[in-house]
Amino acid sequence: MKSVAQLINQPLIGREASYSPSEPIKQPIEPKIAMFVDRLFLRLKAIFPAWRNAFDSEQTYEEAKVYWLEALVNNGITTAEQFKRGLAQAELSTSPFLPSVGQFISWCQDEDYHALGLPNEAELAGRIQQFMGYARYEEHAFRYRSPAEYWLLSTYYRHNWNKPEDVKEMAMRKLLAEAVEKVKAGFNFPAIPLAIEDKSLSLDITDVTTRGMEKIRKVLRSNNDRI
């Protein structure tokens, strides 16, 4: 079995006279990227037990590695961190079959929302639903991941709480993407609101006790005067 680096300069399919090679790779390929793809396929084979269903021969398997390399490079998937992100998502898949290169690219491109202090796309609707119970009067009581999440949830509520469902869904995705960009740009998010003590409702236990004892003394003095 050859490595991707050995294959990228060879014809991909047979030697038939009618064969015309695929489009040339648009981006230059560094040797380390080709090595990433070799290791990637070893991991994918371990994660997806039905991987053989995607290939009818050793030749098509080798061709796929070259095709994946081209697609990954052309879509900017060239770092170890991106490959790790894609593999982490692959490990969460319940399918036994090898994903398409497009699916894997989308996994590599997925943001690590939690590292940015935000809910991911799957969690967002649930977080908004939870926040709705606090939004009007108890924003301070909600447990936010970060100021970025506070901005996301409060902004969504202010502008979309009474909108149609289809508008809400679009707004959720748009605001999440905007929050990601703001975090990356170092945006100074507003601070998470703190609870404001309502002094009119607070009770000084010492004061209450003192006043209570004074009333008792007055009652006792009044009773003594009557005797």
Automatic annotation (TrEMBL):
It holds the Pfam family Phage_lambda_P. One of its GO terms (biological process) is DNA replication initiation. It comes from the Bacteria. InterPro entries: P-like. This is Phage replication protein P. It comes from Volucribacter amazonae. The lineage of its organism: Bacteria, Pseudomonadati, Pseudomonadota, Gammaproteobacteria, Pasteurellales.
